[in-house]
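CORE FACILITY INTAKE
Project code: CF-77B
Contact: R.S. (postdoc)
Sample description: multi-component assembly, two entities in total
Requested service: structural model of the whole complex
Turnaround: standard
Below are the sequence entries exactly as provided by the requester. Do not edit them.
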Amino acid sequence: MQRRTRPRATTPEPRAGRPLIAFGRWWWAGPALLAVLLVQYAATLAGTFFAFTDYSGVGTFTLTGLDNFVAIFQDPSVLGVIGNTLLYAVAQMVGTTILGLAFALALHRGLKSRYVLRAIVFLPIALSPLAVSYVWKFVFEYDGLLNQALGALGLEQFQRTWLGDPETAIWTVVTVIIWQGVGISMVIFLAGLSRIPAELEEAASLDRANLWQRFRYVTLPALRPSVTVATMLSLIFGLRLFDPILALTGGGPVSSSKNLALLVYEQAFTQGNFGYGAALSLILTVIILIFAIIQQLITRERPGD
Amino acid sequence: MSQHSRPRRPLAILGIGVASALLLAGCSTAEPSSGGDSSGGDVTLTFAYPKAGATTPWETMAEKYTEETGIKVEVEPIYIDGYDAAISTRLQSGNAPDLFLTEPGSGPKGLVTLGSAGLLGEVTGQAADLINSAETSAYGSDGKVYGFPLYNAPRAAVVFDGNLDKAGVQWPDTISDMLATCKTSKSNGYAFTLGQFGSSFTADGQALLIAASSVYANDPDWDAKRAAGDVTFSDTDGWRYAIQTLSDMYAAGCYQDGAEAAQGEFWTGVGAGETPSVLSLTTGEADIWKDLSQLLPNETTSVYAFPGQTADDRRVVNSVKFTLSYAAANANSEAAKAYIDWLSQPENLQQIADITGTVPAGEVTADSLESVYEPIKSLVADGKVISEPGLTWPNGVLAAMQEDVPGLFTGQKTVDQVLSDMDAAWAKS
């Protein structure tokens, strides 16, 4: 079979006198690059250096090699905290992806009130996570709305100290982060849905595909890039979580809802173990980096895409 | 390896970070703060304090000083949650306030921490004489002190007199009586004391109050022995008793429902003028009575000693809540020292105590206590006052206690585990 070749794009004739845009060079981005280098990378490198010291946050320090890292991995409570960190990330990824997709499908077309409903679902993402968490605290605290509602319904046996129970504390945080994160996932999926040609769905209908089959074989494959972006974004947000945990449970009881970001804060700024905190921070950075690389590998363009 | 002999490559990396921070902060080097020339001219002192309660004397004292000397003092309240970090950062960058509140001990704004780092100026003379000689180690290092006490705030129980009557109980003298009282008062709708174990200070505040009788009443030098390695938490019966008592208090219903995760919800009602259904507040300094008297004008409070292992072992724990310090690198250091000398005069210390509802700095005597402290006067007169325990503990030890104690209530920790975790934290420091 003869291979068809696409006509090569021809370059425009060079004009006399270079256009203004031709003056654009890499150094146009210089100020921004410098700012990123100084603010982000230099600070990260400095922090990395302190991870190998016993710096307390004030005064002098000595180099301690890998002592901080040895101490971290010998402490079983830190391993539990790393587990919580991954749990938050996975919970946020799964929760916001499934609910975001459900909302996007429901509000994609058809409903007259869909624009208002979209705004309502999206609104929480525009609010401060800390403020949102304090509002939710009124729901979960012992004399809060949830226990009051259970009492009003005659379900006193289900009332509990939601924020102080090791079995429920972490799930109160998960509830809040999913509630706040659904909006951004929904918007990503709405953008993806808007790119699916209506003809595809019509063709599937003509082939007598039911609703589930149309979703399974038409919509979902077309949404694959959106799913990738939504899941990876929510995963990385989940790894960096801080405000809701601090506001709702403080990481307690006994670290049962604590994640790495909160542990870094406690060690570096509350207890004055800056070097140890920097080492924890480096571990968190590496974890996020691993997931970011995975995201790049998954989302990179392949031939045929 | 010391800081001065570390390899050049990390130094270069550190240099980039420092340089970037300085560039972004718009400053070139850490210079002494200056509000004017202390040797003459218009000096304006700056004074920072952590903003928490409604009652603060610092603005009043600043105005008084200006009236008397003509030297202006600009008072800067910093929200308490960010205070420690703000002071530490500003001290190290050379733009600290001329004067600022610190605290004894080795905490983040502790005199030992900041003083041994060379960040604070030495305090001498009349102000230094106010320090209890038994507590000098908590005020600095190498024989120097870097702050002086501004007032004494006993750590004891602030009791709502009306609630005590309504609950039909009397304030107990012993722990065993207290556990019985907890059950009676709870059945009448009142928790014996407010538990806010969602906030870290509750756990150690409560434990140290019990340990005052079970450990320090008979062994006031226990902290020094612990520092020397002569004793441990795990092998001290008094500490085992203290931590076990916390567990017993929870089981006996001494705290309100949901205490294991409560934080500041209590204040929402108090701010609205509602008297809480608790007999007492026991985990902080007693100066809270002053704020309560303003928020709940129809209620009266009295300060009682926390129950002891035995009635004879009850002690009043004296807390020096705040000290005053000045930065070592300070162009106004002479003016700052002059303000310290002025503030440490007896009439000014008395005025601070009157405003805050506390006891003037210096030795605590029965005569120096106002009427709200009537129930503890006899203990003070008998010399049953101890210094605040734990001031010189490594930070991690208090943190371990704060972390573990709620675990006693949720079943995550045993008494033995709490004590061994505290010992482990000490070993790590």
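Facility notes:
- DSSP finds 13 helices and no strands in chain A.
- The CA atoms of residues 6 and 52 of chain A lie 57 Å apart.
Invoice: internal transfer
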